Amino acid sequence: MSSIWSLDTLFVQLFIASFGVLNSWPIYEAMVLRKDKGRIHVKTIVISLCLAFALCGGASLALYIRCGGISYKVCLLTYLKMIDSLRH
Asked: Is the dihedral of CA 38, 39, 45, 46 positive or negative?
C-alpha cells in the first residue's frame, strides 16, 4: 500500500531539497563565506530576506484564509490525503 508518507516520497523530497541547496551554493558562498569584494552587500541580503519572509507569510496567510480559519497544516494534510486517494 502506497502512502504520501512512504520512504520513496521522503527520498524524493530529500533529493529535491539537496539539489536546490547544491545549486544555490555559489549564492550562499557569496552571502556568507566570502570575505573579499565579491561578497554580496549586507543591504541586499537584508532586503532579500525581508522580501522572502513577507512572501512566505503572505502565502501562509492566504492558505489560512482559504481554509476557513482552520490550521493550514490540517487543511494541507486533508488536501494531500485527497490527492493520494485520487491516485488510487
From this structure: negative
Task: Give 61: exposed, middle or buried? Use CB within 10 Å, 0-12, 13-18, 19+.
Answer: exposed
Tell me how far CA of residue 19 lies from CA of 6, 11, 22, 33, in angstroms: 20, 12, 5, 20
For residue 66, pLDDT over 80 is answered with no
Please check whether residue 72 is in contact with residue 64, taking contact to mean a CB–CB distance below 8 angstroms: yes
**How much is the pTM?**
0.55
Dist CA 24 CA 21 (whole Å) = 5
Flag whether pLDDT at 61 surpasses 50.
Answer: yes
Distance of CA 60 to the CA centre of its chain: 11
